[in-house]
Amino acid sequence: MSLSERARSVAIKRLRKYSVISVARLACWVALVGLAVMAASIVDPAPLTVIFAMSVGQVIGIIAFLCYLLSVLMDVIRGSDHSPDAPGPAKQFREPNSAHDAPDAP
Question: How far apart are CA 103 and CA 46, in angstroms?
Fold first, then answer.
């Protein structure tokens, strides 16, 4: 097993714990925090406040964008067998012998 395969399997195992919706909500909350930091420069337009708000606000905005991008990638990786608003992992990433894999009785 190569290092890249091992890193990929660890990343997928960690991402199984979170739903797409929860990561997208995290992105929204982080974006709101960044917006509040940037709005501080409007409330108190001192030079240091503006510099702080624009630099820290940009970093927080980038983190929010990366969270959103991660949620999009998680949705793409899960594939079409998983509805976008359903919590939990898609069928292809579920643990074997899970209750989700049990066949439905007719």
Answer: 64
Q: Which of 93, 100, 62 is nearest to 76 (CA)?
A: 93
Report DSSP state, residue 99: G
> What is the phi-psi region of residue 18: left when phi exceeds 0, alpha when psi lies from -120 to 50, beta otherwise?
beta
**Number of domains making up the chain:** 1
pLDDT digits (tens, 9 = 90+) for 26-49: 999 999 999 999 998 899 889 999
C-alpha 79/C-alpha 24 separation (Å) is 17
Q: Model pTM?
A: 0.63
For residue 75, is it within any domain?
yes
Among candidate residues 73, 81, 77, the one with its CA nearest the CA of residue 100:
81
Distance between alpha carbon 69 and the CA centroid of its chain, in Å? Answer: 7
